[in-house]
Each structure stands twice: as structure tokens, then as C-alpha cells.
Design a protein that fits this description.
Layout lengths: L5 H5 L1 H68 L2 H22 L5 H31 L2 H8 L3 H79 L14 H63 L3 H16 L3 E6 L4 E5 L3 H9 L3 H9 L2 E7 L2 H4 L7 E10 L5 E10 L5 H39 L4 E6 L4 E4 L1 H7 L12 H11 L3 H12 L7 E8 L3 E13 L2 E11 L1 H37 L4 H33 L7 E4 H11 L6 E7 L5 E4 L1 H17 L5 E10 L2 E7 L7 H4 L12 H4 L7 H11 L3 E6 L5 E8 L9 H7 L4 E5 L3 H13 L3 E5 L2 H8 L6 E4 L9 H10 L8 E5 L5 H6 L4 E4 L5 H9 L1
Parallel strand pairs: 12-14, 18-19, 18-20, 20-21, 21-22
Antiparallel strand pairs: 1-2, 1-5, 3-4, 4-5, 6-7, 6-10, 8-9, 9-10, 11-13, 12-19, 14-15, 15-17, 16-17
Helix pairs in contact: 2-3, 2-4, 2-6, 3-4, 4-5, 6-7, 7-8, 14-15, 16-17, 17-22, 19-22, 25-26
Length: 931
């Protein structure tokens, strides 16, 4: 068994734990006792409240069954209902059960007396009264029933009812008393718990105060003693050293430590003086070491600059700063004679430039003989400044030579008041010897860089794209041409392009990505030592066809890389394609008519054919011959135009007159309605009439040819931007947007199922473009597949002037549309010019049917109609159709005819004016102007 020591028994910890244990045990005992009392009191009140509630419930049930007995009995007496009798007996049985439960409760004397009376009543009523009443009821003797009722049974009922009411009041009063008592007990217990809590807090406070007195106060005494020791005062621990606890032990140990310190203080003072002396010595050594480290750091920085710097000015600046840091010059200039590069200290820019430009040739000659020299000179009054005494300046001149003993750089440095010693000069000369190596390295680098730049310039000016790939596959050199060919502009900022990056670029931009990557990777492989080539297509904004050559680059017997030469062969490819298309087109376009000519000629030569069939065959042969002639003429025209040999007879023409003539040529088209809308106020152009006719025929012919289902072909003339603009619009098969840009190429035909069925050489639009360019105009196409096509071209106006405001004319002419239905081209042109001069827009038709269809879609100010038009529909027929339609019946109509006026027809159709040819054109314009 472990024995307790006196220290353990008197320790602060054991005292604290004993007090804490006593406090906890006391607290637990008080709390337990308080909880037991509270619980017992609450249980007693709860039990009493439950008993009273149970009695009250039983009394209520007895009252209910008691009333039920008499209610059922009277019901049976009155109506002889067996169900009422059955319920009566059930109430009697329930009443008996409730009496038994009531008897088992803790009853008072009054409650016990009531119980006995109810038991007697139940017995007498069940055995005597009820049987008599039942017999009287069966005999119908109601008088006997009344006497039986008055015999005393009602008195018992009234007494019981009065008792239950009073019992309820008593029960409610008792329950209220119990509740009030419960509340009072709760308040009392709350007060007691507060008192207990206060006592516990008071007890805890007493304990804490004692702990503080036993612990904090001694610690404060020790703190005061420590401060006194630090300030050299006397120490008084009082009775603290007599305590037997931990604080007493601590105080005794502290006292012993103080005595020990006082004994050794003199020894420590002596040792401290020695340490201070050593510290001063160490600081001095540290300062020297720091200076040496700074010198070494600057020297290493200079070595780095001398080794790696390739910029002259940067080298001179760093070297000059280093020399001034080490040797502390007052003014200095370091001058590199190659390239006139220098750095200065203590001199203005003008003074330094003058010193460098006018360096003394004698001193320069002396430097070539001596590595360095010093000139001592007395300072002038201006140089001394505020100094009163005279003193000297020491000018140092030191040189830098290259390997050929040529002077390349000069150091000029001045110290005022203290000379340059031999050690500094020797170390400076050694340093400048090393500097000469760095100078030569920079000069060699500049020569190499100049050669490299020259080579790069040569490579960049080569038309072929050059790409040098290392043995690992990285691109180390490309020229400007390659960037343009393969669109490598986003990668050229890198000094080298990784194999992964440039191969991914080629794979993304090439149409034959897999085959191209296979070719490039095979060419990079070490096993490849030959020359090979491949053709590929770059798909960017437009296709570029490239031929790449791959050849190996060797260093001795070792393969160090691969050179790829990329040549843009787009033009050659297009020429080859044009040749192929030319051969294909010519063979098709020539063979087809030749087959017809040869076939029908053979039939005429070998067989006897009826004259009418012979005429038909000869007509076919003639038509095919004309077709061949036109084809050959197209080839010849295009060849002459491209070679510049085509002759143009320029003259001033009216473009609308040519347009009217062209429309007249196509008037017999069965499926197509070619009509003209003339909005142009100024139509005079300098042009070749034959070429313009060829232009119109080609464009209108294309509109008809590529509208196989028929439809309108609209020719619109208008003035725009000091030019006349012509648009030819059809309702044909249209062109996809991506194919429009290729339409003006020679022999170019759009490859789709609809156009393959339509013949042609693919030269028409090329010829049209050449004609327009020669006339200094523009031509373009707008189209949408399945929605028709519109071809636009512009021509400069004669004298390039317009004497009216285009915007005003366009604004004024909105809705001022007048239709002329006239088959006489000259008269139609004359009327058109007159109406346009008054600001009207003219729409010309020669077919009355097409004119009628156009009126349904175009707002018109009026219509001029010729009576004698066609066989199928006359002018009067057109007038009749217009008057029958709601949309057109109000349009003013003017008849222009060589026939005499028919008054009945004019009145019937409400003709505004009937003009008999010939008549002045002004008559027409006056009618529309005046309304």
C-alpha cells in the first residue's frame, strides 16, 4: 500500500481537490433531498386529483343511468314497447356495475350513506316496484301506476339528482383547491431552489477566495521579489518560505537561486566584459566579410554580364557601374570605339559627347604603347568649387585591346584629392583584359546575327514556303511565304513550334488530313533518307493547292532534320482544271451539233426523202451550224478580250433604246415574258453597241435558259451613284450562295442535277464580265437556290454627270408607274422618254396577257394601250379584262391607236382619252400630269 507523504497531504492540489469534493457531495445531497420532497408532494396531489376526478365521472354515469331507468320505464308504461323494456333492463345492469365500482373507491361517510340508499333503491326497484309497474301497465291500470309513483320513488330520484349537482360543485371546488395548492408548492419549491443555488454560490465564493489567498498572493510576493532583484533592491519573502506547500518550495528555491546569482555576479561581470570585446571583434570581421561578399556578388554579376550579355550598351553600362562601385571615381567615361557606345558619370550628355568625339590623338597613341597611365593636374578655381585650399586631380587613362592588339575601348576616370594606387591600377588592367574577350564575343555575335538575318531575309523573299524540322519533329525555321500558304501566322511568334502543334494545324486545315499527316510523319522519321513529294489542299477562306517536297538534312553521316518546301500551285491547278473543263465542254458542245449535222447529212445523201422532210432536216442542220458558229465566236471573243485585241467602237448611246430593241427580239418567247421597267432619267453612255447587245442577249438568254418552267424576265433601268444600273431578274432555278463567286470563271458550270440538263459552254458570264470591265463598270449576281436570280451591272454615264438629285427622283417617282402596252418599238421608246422626262416610271409590255398579269401586282398611275396588239388578245380585250377586275377597274386608260375612235367603246369602258396616231408625245404626259 502506497503511503502518503506530508508534502502530498499539504499540497495545494490536494487541498483544492478536498474542498471541491466536499462541495460536489454537499450539492448532490441537497439536490437529491429537494427532488425527493418535491416528487412526493407532487405525487400526493396528483393521486388526490385523480381520485376526485374518478368519483366525479362515476357519479355522472350513475346519474345518467338513474335517469335512464325512469325514462325507459315511463316509455314502456306509455307505449308498451318491448325495446324500451330491453333498454330498461340494460340500464339496471349498468347501474349495478357502476355501484360496485363506486363502492371500491375511498368514500366519505356522506358518500357511503348515498351508496347504501342507492343499493336499497336498486334492489327494491328491481324486485318490487318494477314488477308491480309492469303488471299494472299490462293490465292498463294507470291509476295504480300513479299511486305507485307517488309512493316515494320520485323522492329518491329528486334527492339523488340534487346530490349529484351539489357533488359536482364540491368536486370542482376541491380540484381548484388542489390546483392552487400545486401552484403554491411550485412557488415554494422555486424559492427553495433559488435559496439553495445562492448558498452554493456563496460556498463556491468562499472556496475561491481561500484558493486565491493560498495561491495568488504568494505569486504576487514572488513577482515583487523578482522585480526587486532585477532593480538591485533587497528582497523580503516574509513567511512565504515557511509554507510547506509547492509555493513554499518555490520560494525557497527562488531564495537559493538569488543567493547563487549574487555569489557569481562578479564572475559573470568579468565574463561579460570579455564577451563584449569578442563581439566588437566579430562585428569588425563580419563587416569585412560583408564587404568581401558584396565585392564577390558584384564581381559575379559582372562575370554574368561579360559572359551572357550580347548588347553593347548594356555591357558598357554594367561594366562602368561596376568600376565606379569598386574604385569610387568622381567623374568617368567608358568609351567603346566600335559603334560609338559609351557610359558616363559626373558629366553632362553634351560634355561626354564632346569628349568622345574630340578625344586627344596623342593620348590615344600613348595608350597603344602603354596599357594605362595617370596624369596629375592642379584643379582650377572653377573646379575647386567651395574648397579653399588647392589640391590635385588624378586623371586615369586605361585601354582595352582585342586579340590583334587593336585599341577597341578607353576608360577615362578622375579622382579629386587622392591618387590611384598601383594595386588598383593592376587590378583594373587585369579586369579590362577579361573585358576585351567579351567585346570580341559581342562583335562575333553581331556578325553571326547579321549573317542569320541576311539568310532569313533571303528565305523570306523566296516564293516557296520553307520549313526546317529537327530530328525530333519540332519546326525550327519557317519563312514568310509558308505562313501565307498554310496560315501559320498564329504560331510564328514562337522561336520553335512543337511537332504536335504544327501537325495539328496541318491536320485541321488540310482537306486530305490523314494522308498529309502520314506523308509528313514518314518524312521526319530517321529511316527516311530520300526525296519525296505530295500534293494537298488547304481549306481556309478559299482553297489553296500546295505541292510539298521533302528532303533530308545531314551533318556528316547523321540525319539532323528534314526540309519541307511548300509550293503554291493553285494557279497551275486551276489552269489544269480549266483545261479539263474546256476539253469536256468543247467535246460535248461540238459533238452534239456535229452529230446532228453528220446524221442528217448522211440521211440526205443516202436516202430518198420527201421534200418537206428534207426542208426540216436542212433547217436542223442550219440551226446546229449556227450553234457551232456561236460557240466558236464565243471562244474567239473571249480570247480576243483577254488578250486585249478586241476592238471596241465607243460612241454615245441611249441604253434604254438598246434595252427596248433587245426586249423586242424576245417578244416571241412562249413561256417567258420579257418586259422592261425604265426608271432611269439619264440613259446616255459611252459604249460599243454590238458589245452591249451581246451583253444583253447573253444575260437574258441565261435568264430564259435557267428558267425551264417559264416565268417573267424583268429588265430594270435606274440611275444610282452617278451611273446607270441594269438588273435582269428571272424566276428560275437560282444559284446557291457558295457557287455565286465561281460563276464568272471560264468554262465554269454549276454541278447540280437541274443544271446538268441545260447545255452551255460556261463562257457567257466570262464574256459579260470582260465587256463590263472594258466599259469601266461592275457586274455581280444575287440569287437564292429555288428563288430565281438577279444579275446587276452598272455603266458610267456619258460625261459622268447627272443634272438632277437621284434621291429626289426616287422619292418623286414612288408609285408614279405608267404601263405602255405597245408593239411598235419606236413609238414605245418615244413615249417612254417623254414620260420619264416628267418624272414617271415606265413599264413596257408588248404582250397584252403578260401586261394584264403585271397590273395585278404593280400599282399603276395609268395605262397606255394600243388596240392592234396580238391575235389572241387585242387592246379592247385587255381594256375589258381591266374593267372587270376590282383591283384595276379604276386605273385611267389612254388608247393609242392608228384606228379611228369608236365612241361606243370609249364610253362603255370609260376611256380617259383616245389618241389617234400620229400625235405629239406631249399629249400623253399632259394627260397624266394634269390628271
Amino acid at each position: 500500500m502506497i503511503k502518503s507523504t506530508p508534502l502530498l497531504n499539504k499540497s495545494i492540489r490536494s487541498q483544492f481537490f478536498k474542498m471541491l469534493l466536499f462541495l460536489v457531495v454537499s450539492f448532490l445531497i441537497i439536490i437529491a433531498a429537494f427532488l425527493v420532497v418535491v416528487n412526493a408532494s407532487q405525487n400526493a396531489l396528483q393521486q388526490k386529483r385523480e381520485q376526485m376526478y374518478e368519483k366525479s365521472m362515476l357519479v355522472d354515469e350513475l346519474e345518467e343511468n338513474f335517469n335512464g331507468i325512469f325514462f325507459r320505464a315511463r316509455g314502456y308504461y306509455a307505449f308498451q314497447n318491448e325495446q324500451e323494456l330491453k333498454l330498461l333492463y340494460e340500464n339496471l345492469e349498468n347501474f349495478e356495475v357502476l355501484l360496485q365500482k363506486f363502492s371500491q373507491l375511498d368514500l366519505t361517510e356522506e358518500e357511503r350513506g348515498l351508496y347504501n340508499e342507492l343499493v336499497d333503491f336498486h334492489y327494491n326497484y328491481k324486485t318490487v316496484t318494477l314488477p308491480k309497474g309492469l303488471s299494472f301497465a299490462k293490465m292498463g291500470d294507470y291509476e295504480a301506476l300513479r299511486e305507485l309513483s307517488n309512493s316515494g320513488a320520485n323522492d329518491l330520484v329528486n334527492k339523488f339528482i340534487a346530490y349529484t349537482k351539489s357533488y359536482k360543485k364540491k368536486t370542482d371546488h376541491s380540484l381548484n383547491q388542489i390546483f392552487s395548492k400545486t401552484v403554491e408548492q411550485g412557488q415554494l419549491f422555486t424559492f427553495i431552489s433559488l435559496m439553495i443555488s445562492g448558498l452554493i454560490l456563496l460556498f463556491v465564493g468562499v472556496i475561491l477566495r481561500r484558493v486565491l489567498n493560498n495561491m495568488i498572493r504568494p505569486i504576487e510576493q514572488l513577482t515583487l521579489a523578482t522585480n526587486a532583484l532585477a532593480s538591485g533592491k533587497s528582497i523580503d519573502l516574509g513567511n512565504l518560505v515557511q509554507k510547506e506547500d509547492e509555493l513554499g518550495i518555490l520560494a525557497n528555491s527562488f531564495l537559493k537561486m538569488i543567493l547563487s546569482i549574487q555569489d557569481k555576479e562578479e564572475v559573470l561581470t568579468t565574463q561579460n566584459e570579455e564577451l563584449l570585446a569578442q563581439q566588437d571583434e566579430l562585428q569588425e570581421n563580419q563587416l569585412q566579410l560583408q564587404n568581401s561578399l558584396n565585392y564577390l556578388e558584384k564581381y559575379n554579376q559582372l562575370n554574368h554580364v561579360l559572359t551572357f550579355t550580347l548588347n553593347k550598351q548594356k555591357l558598357i553600362d554594367n561594366l562602368h557601374n561596376y568600376l565606379n562601385d569598386i574604385y569610387q571615381y568622381d567623374t568617368s567615361v567608358l568609351y567603346w570605339m566600335e559603334g560609338n557606345v559609351y557610359a558616363t558619370k559626373g558629366l553632362s550628355h553634351q560634355s561626354a559627347a564632346a569628349l568622345v568625339d574630340n578625344f586627344d590623338m596623342d593620348k590615344q597613341a600613348r595608350l597603344k604603347q602603354e596599357k594605362s597611365f595617370v596624369i596629375k593636374r592642379q584643379l582650377t578655381a572653377n573646379e575647386k568649387g567651395i574648397a579653399q585650399d588647392s589640391y590635385y586631380a588624378y586623371d586615369l587613362y586605361s585601354s582595352v585591346f582585342n586579340s590583334k592588339r587593336e585599341l577597341v575601348a578607353i576608360l577615362m576616370a578622375t579622382r579629386e584629392g587622392h591618387p590611384h594606387n598601383d594595386r588598383d591600377i593592376d587590378s583594373l588592367n587585369g579586369l579590362l583584359n577579361r573585358v576585351s574577350i567579351a567585346f570580341e564575343r559581342i562583335l562575333m555575335y553581331e556578325e553571326v546575327e547579321k549573317s542569320r538575318t541576311l539568310n532569313q531575309t533571303i528565305i523570306d523573299n523566296v516564293n516557296e514556303g520553307i520549313q526546317l524540322v529537327s530530328a525530333t519533329g519540332d519546326t525550327v525555321l519557317i519563312n514568310r511565304a509558308l505562313c501565307g500558304i498554310v496560315n501559320l501566322l498564329n504560331l510564328t511568334t514562337e522561336t520553335s513550334i512543337s511537332k504536335k502543334d504544327w501537325l495539328q494545324h496541318f491536320q485541321k486545315c488540310s482537306a486530305q488530313s490523314d494522308e498529309l499527316i502520314e506523308f509528313l510523319e514518314a518524312s521526319i522519321m530517321e529511316s527516311f533518307e530520300d526525296t519525296r513529294k505530295y500534293r494537298y489542299c488547304m481549306t481556309a477562306e478559299h482553297e489553296i493547292f500546295v505541292e510539298v517536297y521533302a528532303t533530308c538534312l545531314f551533318d556528316g553521316q547523321e540525319k539532323v532534320g528534314t526540309i519541307f518546301v511548300h509550293r503554291d500551285i493553285t494557279r497551275e491547278y486551276e489552269v489544269d482544271q480549266m483545261k479539263s473543263e474546256l476539253v469536256s465542254t468543247v467535246s460535248h458542245e461540238l459533238r452534239t451539233p456535229l452529230s446532228s449535222v453528220l446524221g442528217f447529212t448522211e440521211l440526205l445523201l443516202t436516202k430518198n426523202i420527201k421534200p418537206e422532210r428534207q426542208n426540216k432536216y436542212i433547217d436542223t442542220i442550219h440551226r446546229e451550224a449556227v450553234r457551232l458558229t456561236n460557240l466558236i465566236n464565243d471562244f474567239l471573243d473571249l480570247q480576243r478580250m483577254e488578250s486585249g485585241k478586241q476592238q471596241y467602237n465607243m460612241e454615245t448611246l441611249q441604253l434604254n433604246e438598246i434595252a427596248f430593241e433587245i426586249v423586242n427580239r424576245f417578244r416571241h418567247e412562249q413561256k417567258h415574258n420579257v418586259h422592261l421597267i425604265d426608271k432611269a432619267r439619264e440613259v446616255h453612255v459611252n459604249a460599243d453597241q454590238d458589245r452591249l447587245v451581246q451583253l444583253f442577249i447573253n444575260l437574258i438568254g441565261n435568264a430564259i435558259k435557267f428558267s425551264p418552267q417559264g416565268g417573267d424576265v424583268e429588265i430594270l433601268l435606274e440611275n444610282k451613284n452617278n451611273k446607270i444600273q441594269v438588273s435582269i431578274k428571272d424566276e428560275g432555278i437560282g444559284i446557291s450562295k457558295q457557287d455565286i463567286a465561281q460563276l464568272f470563271q471560264k468554262f465554269k458550270r454549276i454541278d447540280n442535277s437541274l443544271r446538268r440538263k441545260i447545255g452551255g459552254t460556261g463562257l457567257g458570264l466570262s464574256i459579260c464580265r470582260e465587256i463590263i470591265l472594258k466599259h469601266e463598270g461592275e457586274i455581280w449576281i444575287e440569287s437564292e437556290e429555288g428563288q430565281g436570280t438577279t444579275v446587276y451591272f452598272t455603266l458610267p454615264l456619258a460625261n459622268n454627270t447627272i443634272t438632277f438629285d437621284e434621291e429626289d427622283v426616287m422619292e418623286d417617282s414612288k408609285g408614279l408607274n405608267i404601263m405602255i402596252v405597245e408593239d411598235d418599238l419606236s413609238l414605245a421608246l418615244l413615249l417612254s422618254e417623254e414620260l420619264k422626262s416628267k418624272g414617271f416610271t415606265v413599264i413596257h409590255h408588248h404582250d397584252p396577257k403578260k401586261a394584264f398579269e403585271d397590273t395585278l401586282n404593280t400599282p399603276l398611275l395609268g395605262i397606255v394601250i394600243d388596240i392592234m396588239l396580238g391575235e389572241e388578245m387585242s387592246g379592247w380585250d385587255l381594256v375589258h379584262a381591266l374593267r372587270e377586275r376590282e383591283h384595276t377597274k379604276e386605273i385611267p386608260i389612254i388608247i393609242s391607236s392608228a384606228l379611228d375612235e369608236v365612241k361606243e367603246m370609249v364610253d362603255q369602258f370609260q376611256i380617259k382619252k383616245y389618241l389617234t396616231k400620229p400625235y405629239p408625245p406631249e399629249e400623253i404626259s399632259k394627260l397624266f400630269v394634269l390628271g
